[in-house]
Amino acid sequence: MNNKRKNIITTFIFSFLLLCISVLCIVKPAEVFSESERRELASFPNFSVSTFASGEFAQNFETYATERFPYRDMFRSVKAWFSKTVFKKLDNNGLFVAEGHISKLDSEENPQMMDHAAERFAYLYNTYMKDKNTNVYFSVIPDKNFLLASPNGYPSLDYRAFTEKIKEKTSYMTYIDVTDLLGLEDYYTTDSHWRQEKIIDIAEKIGTAMGVDVSAAYKENKLDYPFYGVYAGQLALPTKSDEIVYLTNDTLDACCVTYYDTGIGKEGLLYNMEKAYGKDPYEMFLSGTTPLVTIENPNAKTDKELVIFRDSFGSSLAPLLAEGYAKITVVDIRYVQSAFVGNLVEFENCDVLFVYSTSLLNNSLAMR
Amino acid sequence: MVFSGIPFLYYFLPCVILVYLAVPKRLKNTVLLLFSLLFYAWGEPKYVFLMMATIAINYGLALLIEKCKGKPLSKLFMIVATVINLGFLGYFKYADFFIANFNRVTGLSAPLLHVVLPIGISFYTFQTLSYVIDVYRSNTHAQKNPITLATYVVLFPQLIAGPIVRYVDVERELTNREHSFEKVSQGIRRFIVGLSKKVLLANTLGEFCTAFLAAGDKSVLFYWLYVFAYMLQVYFDFSGYSDMAIGLGKIFAFDFLENFNYPFISKSISEFWRRWHMSLGSWFRDYVYIPMGGNRVRRGRMLFNIFTVWFLTGFWHGAEWNFIVWGLYFGVLLALEKFFFGKTLERFKTIGHIYVLFFVAISFAIFGAGSMTEAISHVGGMFGAGGLPMVSEGFWYYLKSYGVVMIIAILAATPLPKLLLEKCRKNKTVSAVWDVLEIPLLVCLLLLATAYLADGAFNPFLYFRF
């Protein structure tokens, strides 16, 4: 090809390409909600003289232009593929695949966050439990990197040291170690959470430690909908779906579940089927992000009550403890301030269980 | 606005090209000026007024310098222009540094000004300085058309990250430039190569550098891996920006001088600085070192000249002590080469390469630190200070994860790929295949860089301190 012709072709191809993408950016921005990343994407920013002069418009426009780039999911996949295949990078945006599981690199201990979590626990204990007749228990759930990262050559948190440190800071609670019962198969392959159908033994161990028999037979119900966990979309590479199984039995069916999203109780179900087919199916367990839920078991053999302070791992665990208690109150202090908990929960003669994952304890800023 | 962003690539650039093509020749500079002001105002509009004030002052003073040529007033106007330009730079970039150090020395607590540094001020100040000094030296005429001068100062391709383009080098093109498919096509190639260097290589290496700084399990080898990755990151970031600037310049029919020439293949530090940020090195040579007497003075004076230039070079890069130490560190090495072992290095080339990489690596450990304390900690880490272990888990992981990128980056930092391509193209068949493949390859690179940007992957802007 002679140079003159090649120069003309180069110029026209790139002008055309630039123009086409530019027009697409304007007429076909990506959807407002990213299914793969499970988040709202930026909207076109408000323009005014003051937002432009302050630089706010420019900053927000850059976010908008990047997040709403046409066919962004496809471009994200191309990037992830190139990074993995050509650059041979072992992780993409901090996510890695090992032993069929997707997980997130989270190897740095954050002492300030751990202190914050411990301080919140101490506040709850000193304010509501110290002078009451309560038995307080604590269990740390390691994320799946505990079993996955180090054996596969990925940097890993020192989980044992981490747990020892948080135990030291919460020595007023009885610690229940569940790590010996955890295997990789207990976690979803595309999500950070554990599988409800795999943690019956863990629930039993916790129950036994609290002096309660929670053992029961359950029926396994499979959700007829492929479950792509939070990591699947973030990884941006083709992945096999998971399957959500939720457990039921006569006790659970008879339970009365009340949600206190606004302080006023509203009856609901243990398993929210609307959420099961929503953006994050794991939210079907106790409706996901809820500040306070009560589970009342009319068939309970005792009148014992349990208060659980938990993160999302506790959502699937709490129903499995229902067998041994007349009432379980499940509290998430990310969505209700610790100072208000006393207005909603009675602690006299209760068992109290703090059950938190290492990832939340290491990133506990949301605890209020 | 930065070149390596979606707003620039797919909103700003198509607009400026379309409008530029649509207007007649006499309005092309005005279009470039207006779009350049928008480019600069994006995110930081208030400093457009500073920029315009700088242009107006230099425009007027240059005319006065020329008008008073041969008279003492000419020199006075040149001095006034220099003081004003450096005054702006001093206030916006260095005021808090001086106040903080004054407080440290006196024990007082004068309040800091917390002035936000206008992006690119170090680059455009040096450009305007070169302009007035060149008018004073009669190397060029004062520009009578304020739009032409303003276009030179704010021309967006080189505005925020260089190269430092001198007025004399683009004077003819500012008034009469010839557009051609050849130039545009060269510009497109260069721009895409630069964008790929920045987005694919520099940003990926930058990801590692950020991860290293946050990592808890540091070790000696981990420090060395970081320092080499950081060297490569800065090189590909900076040379990538320069390539994009040169490419954009060509699209608009400007020829900017080269800014990098494979610096890591140097055999001495003097050679390294002839290949690294060449526009800055030559600026200091022509406007500071030679006017001070350069090499043609006594040994003591020459040493003083060298250290003055390298003190200023370091200080130009940032208002922190680590940058000053970084500059003086090179001053020491250059003085040693000049007076002691420069000739030896020429004879033992392999030793020269190792020597350059070793000392440049240490320099980047200083350069990449946020303060002098951090710089000492980084350099100490490279030599196991504080009983640091030789290796750690993190080192092995990041070596495996970033090893391929680093190998690609090392190869791309040498002229080998270019030489190989040139050699292969001597074969007619290969040349024909290359002719066919080059355009699809460039399209792929552009789309791949776009994919990285659309993913919102790590994309730092390193020049906020300059």
Explain this structure to me?
The complex is a heterodimer of chains A (368) and B (466). Chain A is α/β, with parallel strands linked by helices and 368 residues long. Chain A has 14 helices and 14 strands. Chain A has two domains: 3-98, no CATH class; 109-366, no CATH class. In chain A, the strands form four sheets. In chain A, strands 6-5-14-12-13-11-9-10 form an eight-stranded mixed sheet. In chain A, helix 5 runs parallel beside helix 13. Chain B is mainly alpha-helical and 466 residues long. Chain B is globular and about 65 Å long. In chain B, 73% of the residues lie in helices and 0% in strands. Chain B has helices spanning 6-22, 28-41, 47-67, 72-106, 121-136, 146-154, 167-175, 181-214, 220-251, 269-275, 278-289, 299-317, 321-347, 349-367, 372-382, 393-412, 416-424, 428-454. Chain B has two domains: 6-177, no CATH class; 183-454, no CATH class. Chain B contains 18 helices and no strands. Chains A and B meet through helix 1, helix 3 and helix 4 of A and helix 1, helix 8, helix 16 and helix 18 of B.
In short:
The complex is a heterodimer of chains A (368) and B (466). With 368 residues, chain A is α/β, with parallel strands linked by helices.
Features:
heterodimer, A: 368 residues, alpha/beta, 2 domains, 8-stranded mixed beta sheet, two-stranded antiparallel ribbon, 36% helix, B: 466 residues, mainly alpha, 73% helix
Class based on secondary structure composition and strand pairing of chain B:
mainly alpha
Largest interchain contact? A-B, 53 and 57 residues
Oligomer designation? heterodimer
The biggest beta sheet of chain A reads:
8 strands, mixed
User: Which bin fits the share of residues in helices of chain B?
Assistant: over 70%
The stretches of 5 or more residues of chain A where confidence is low (pLDDT under 50) are none
Please write the string of helix (H) and strand (E) elements of chain A: HEEHHHEEHEHHEHEHEHEEHEEHEHEH
**Count of DSSP strands of chain B:** 0
CA-based gyration radius of chain B: 23 Å
User: What sort of overall outline of chain B do the alpha carbons produce when their principal axes are compared?
Assistant: globular
Rounded to an integer, what's the Rg of chain A over CA atoms?
24 Å
Please report the distance between the alpha carbons of the first and last residues of chain B.
15 Å
Percent strand of chain A:
15-25%
Structural class of chain A: alpha/beta
Measure the end-to-end span of chain A: 68 Å
Report the mean per-residue pLDDT of chain B as an integer: 94
Counting DSSP H or I runs of 4 or more residues, the number of helices of chain A is: 14
